[in-house]
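Q: Predict the bound structure with adenosine-5'-triphosphate.
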Amino acid sequence: MRIEAEQITRIFGTARAVDAASFAIDQPMVVGIIGSSGAGKSTLLRMINRLTDASSGRLLVEGRDVLALKGKDKRAWQADCAMIFQQFNLVPRLDVVSNVLHGLLNKRGLLPTLMNMWSREDIDRAVQILDRLGIAEQATKRAEALSGGQQQRVAIARALMQDPKIILADEPIASLDPMNAQIVMDTLRRIHEEDGRTVIANLHTLDTARHYCDRVIGMRKGRIVFDGTPEQLTTGAARDIYGAGAGFSEATTSTAIDASAPADQAYADRLMAD
Ligand SMILES: Nc1ncnc2c1ncn2[C@@H]1O[C@H](COP(=O)(O)OP(=O)(O)OP(=O)(O)O)[C@@H](O)[C@H]1O
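A: Predicted complex:
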């Protein structure tokens, strides 16, 4: 699926939160978007998913401008690009399976979702996805009873329930400890590798972007100032993206993730077995 952003811009008042962003993604990959706070990363992702309207520009997906879609077509596009968030955005008092089934909202409509009316087939698929992510044993618990890392995996399961072509992740690990951050990033990476889905993730740490992404887009003050491979993301390039002076230290944008060590081998093995 080819995705081509042409001069996408979002203006809030007089501020250009995203200023003429252009890029093309020709094949499924994991893309990391990095940049300082306020650089426009969230606004860019939200425009792709149509949670925020663009002020101008086009997003061509297989030749069709998805920024111009309305009604049913817009909802179908939103089902194609599932979103996950820093704060997971689950329904806390609802059980895990029901939260996952909410991924069908765009496909099944509001009423069945609110009434919690699901087919046996849908429920089985939700449990299968939870099993794939290593959290099937949590299926009947309330979402609020789970750890942050488990909740983010439920959010990923909800996204997968939509069977999306793209997963958009807005700071998916910013609220997690290093071990859970690693599990969640491993999960997103494997979903790309095994399912061929594109993942576009806003990340606030350079080392995560370098380790997990095929491509990194750097934003500064609303503009795309870097677009390249992790290898091309040198300390100098990072300094330009973050607008830092000569005293710039990568450590300020690093987590303590030891990405070379498997965080949870049993979980990883189960995921690979599917
Ligand atoms: N709804 C809004 N109304 C007004 N200004 C907004 C709105 N949303 C974002 N902005 C502004 O747009 C700019 C970009 O914000 P955005 O949240 O996209 O940046 P970000 O790179 O994701 O930052 P962070 O990492 O802190 O989330 C900021 O100056 C922000 O204040």
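A: The beta strands are 3-12, 15-25, 30-34, 56-61, 64-65, 81-85, 166-170, 198-202, 215-220, 223-228.
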